[in-house]
């Protein structure tokens, strides 16, 4: 098993991760008045029973279940969950466990950090995206009025336990969505990891790379926990344009699929602004096209969604653009006209060579 100490709680990954959590519970369970488990209905069925079977020291717990998908990251659901915690007798000494993909860990982290001014929280990510990205780094949040993660917090968890066998039941489309964040991490790391990522042929190979891909995020978070400088902003690669597309397309669009499109468009912009070399930019776009042969269709008003992005400063749209694999991203203001061109180029490009 591999573990890291992070500013947002210890992170464990490996087949022993649940035994590690069980040992922690054996030591700490008595200090909690109750334990609530937040999950969605898919994960409830696919993962909860077999993961609970590994946690002998958990004792009694209550389950809060939400509908799967991004629509649950909302003010309405958050309010229902605050009240559901209360109805289940949760007090300030209740422990909340978020068991699920990025939607559950984002929402659960925010729920825990706000209920009665904050209760303890543990994350058990079950999707590839949740394991490699969403549950790491302390960012929690919900979407408001069509804007991604408009309200949220940086929150510390008592632990983040990544148990790869949970991935056995992950549907194919969510492996691919998670792969977008993995590609981003591999690009940021460069070197062998980027070469390996470009050569990946199936998801079993991805599972083997999990700790290495997580380490990339842990490294960026450790150096810049609260995104004060450029280091953590690098993790936003593909996200500014991806979030705009995701918000404009609505709940049918998976976060990871939108990030993949964002990586494609931001590499296009980077090349056209002379930041990335044509060959580096093309290699990144090829890595996206290989797994996303069909493009998403950006609606005409997609660029409106860039206005609420948290990375903007003084009304300027700031993008984290790729430079070359393994090198820092370029944080640059980009004119709206160039962004519109990138959306058009993405929508029109052909991936027929794959
Ligand atoms: N906080 C952060 O730093 C951060 C970073 C990246 C993404 N995110 C957020 O993460 C969210 C996307 O996460 P996601 O892609 O995991 O989506 P998700 O939570 O909706 O999970 C994807 C789907 O897979 C199902 N699922 C998850 N694990 C499963 C398993 N083991 N077996 C069967 N089904 C399983 C879920 O029920 C859901 O239907 C977005 O809201 C995004 O904004 C947050």
Explain what this protein looks like in three dimensions.
- The chain is an alpha/beta fold and 354 residues long.
- The protein folds into two domains: 2-169, 3-Layer(aba) Sandwich (Rossmann fold), CATH 3.40.50.1970; 175-348, Up-down Bundle (Dehydroquinate synthase-like, alpha domain), CATH 1.20.1090.10.
- The protein is 46% helix and 16% strand.
- It has 14 helices and eleven strands.
- The strands form three sheets. Strands 1-2-9-6-5-3-4 form a seven-stranded mixed β-sheet, with helices on both faces. A two-stranded antiparallel ribbon has the order 7-8.
- Strand 1 (2-4) and strand 2 (11-13) form a beta hairpin.
- Helix 7 (172-189) packs antiparallel against helix 8 (191-199), helix 11 (239-249) packs across helix 12 and helix 12 runs antiparallel to helix 13 (278-291).
- The chain is globular and about 60 Å long.
- It starts with a strand and ends in a 6-residue tail after the last helix.
- The model has no long low-confidence stretch (mean pLDDT 94).
- The structure holds nicotinamide-adenine-dinucleotide (NAD).
- Nicotinamide-adenine-dinucleotide (NAD) is lined by residues 40, 42-43, 46-47, 68-70, 73, 100-104, 106, 126-127, 129-130, 133-134, 137, 139, 148-149, 166-167, 169-171, 174, 177, 255-256.
Key phrases:
single chain; 14 helices; two-stranded antiparallel sheet; 46% helix; 16% strand; Rossmann fold; Dehydroquinate synthase-like, alpha domain; 2 domains; binds nicotinamide-adenine-dinucleotide; alpha/beta; seven-stranded mixed β-sheet
